[in-house]
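Hey, sorry to bother you again with one of my protein questions. A protein chain has come my way and I'm curious about its shape. I'm sending you its amino acid sequence along with the backbone structure tokens. I owe you a coffee for this, so here goes:
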Amino acid sequence: MKKLTIKIFVLAISMSGGIMAQQTPAPKQSKAVTIVGATAHLGNGETIKNSLIIFEDGKITQIMDALTTKMQYRGTIIQADGKHVYPGFIAPNSTLGLVEIDAVRASDDEDEIGDMLPHLRSLIAYNTESQVVESMRPNGVLMGQITPRGGTISGTSSIVQFDAWNWEDAVIKEDDGLHLNWPNSFKQGRWWEGEERGMKPNKDYKDEVSKISQFFNSAKAYLAGDMNEVNLPFKAMKTVFTGDKKVYIHVNGEKEITDAIQFKKEQDLKDMVIVGGYDALNVADALKANNISILAQRPHTTPDQDGDDYDYSYKMAKLLVDKGLLVGLESSGQMERMNSRNLPFYAGTVASFGMDKEEALKLITFNTAKILGIDDMVGTLERGKDATLFISEGDALDMRTNIITHAYIQGREISLESHQTELYHRYSNKYKDQDKTKKKENE
């Protein structure tokens, strides 16, 4: 009886593994691929209506108008007349792969104990077997910046592609940036401690900002010394001061953004990015003057303040671009991992509220790649860049026509199946069978 129980248990585990495991990563590209006839959306604001795209060994080798060349097609030929080709979309400031199920503590690895954690590396906690990550790919989201949460300095992010055996295989850019959560000058009253409800001035704001400056100054002093005593947080700051690591400041209020700009000057930070930036429009000139780009909050949110336009969140990214700022879109917030698959539709929303469609596409391709410092590899369809791209039946920024037939990461054709698509096929067949049965009964 005991042996039978063990066998049943092993069988159950193996069956569940077959159902729950992520699709096997695609093998390295072995032969050239030619895509011909599709409208190519280059990601830089330009399009080629009848395109010829060839890629081999994981790199794009040719992209041009198919009508202006007699070039020999190579390898596998995909006739894509009437379809559309896009560079893979990029999800910045994401916790994909760090949390699988919010209610299961063992699957939540987005935060660590402590306040100043520049030495924390999100990359080594990234789970390539995540089913949530897998569900991004059928919408064209093929890469992401995996970012820790919590504390004042959350740690260091890394950029990965979404088809890999392990984090070593997944990484595109390792330890790309430091993430700092700027204090709020107002805070919500803690009613459970007898405080009044609603927002009120944060009396500790200056001290909290001063604490950040003190940490940066102490790190500089440590790095300038003999460093005989090992201090991992201070050592991790070295690449911040040399400019090899960007500083992403998560901040929304006008005063807070202004103070963050001043902080950049005081600390002589080479490359700073505002994440969220709800009130960034009010200080757009200062941001532009200091060469600060923005990863704007997702458009599918309600306005934060009573006096804001009802559609402010929808048009915020366009207004910032109109001010001459480099802007990308991020999707943090409530249910952020699930909502990350809606990234193309966020850009579509911005387009429907006044931005040119190809300019809106840049918000999740070229602009984001440039902000993250990976535009030499991805973000646009160009010769020499990674063949990370996909073919869609229609407009990929519209959820009705974002129907992907082929997707490639570094030239490897990846599976577009996921747990969600399996459920879709299962239940669509169920109801089709029921409809057939009812039809026969009615006859």
